[in-house]
Amino acid sequence: MRGLHRPEVWHTCPTCNDPDYPHPGQCARCLINRRLGELLGPPSDALHPDLEALRNDIATAEHPITARRWLNKPSVSPVMADLAAGRRALTHQALDELPDSPPLAHLRQVLVGVGALPERDE
Predict the structure, then answer these.
(1) Angle between helices 77-85 and 28-40 in degrees, nearest 10
(2) Is 86 left (phi over 0), alpha (psi -120 to 50) or beta?
(3) What is the Cα–Cα distance from 71 to 80, expressed in whole angstroms?
(4) Total-model pTM
(5) In the 8-state DSSP scheme, what is residue 10?
């Protein structure tokens, strides 16, 4: 019967070979890791350990598609790149200087959750 056999390209992610990803192209986890590499650079000892914890938290998020969308928010991606490059300090005060937005508030919450920032009463 036609249509029942899917070509091999539909069975695995070309990067990680995940057999549970029945779509062409990279899976959401690989796309997240690629985006994290663009924003934070490759995993290395040069990256602040707290930002490495942030990378790990995002890369292992329960809902990778939602995490990927969040990573691409204009109020999140440049801040993460600035933190990684040292152009912005990893402090509440440095984040307070930015325009408030729900994605930025979530970034702050994640940074607190991974121990990169101390808790404070918002």
Answers:
(1) 50
(2) left
(3) 9
(4) 0.78
(5) G
Q: How many residues does the chain have?
A: 122
The pLDDT, as a whole number, for residue 31 is 86
* 6 token code pair: 């899917």
Cβ-contact 6, 22 below 8 angstroms: yes
Name the one residue in this structure whose structure tokens are 């440095």: 94
Whole-number Å distance between alpha carbons of 77 and 93: 18
What are the structure tokens assigned to 53, written together?
């914890």
Residues 6 or more apart whose CB falls under 8 angstroms from that of 11 comprise 19, 22
**Tens digits of residue pLDDT in 74-107:** 989 999 999 999 999 999 999 999 999 999 999 9
Q: What token pair was written down for 30?
A: 């690989």
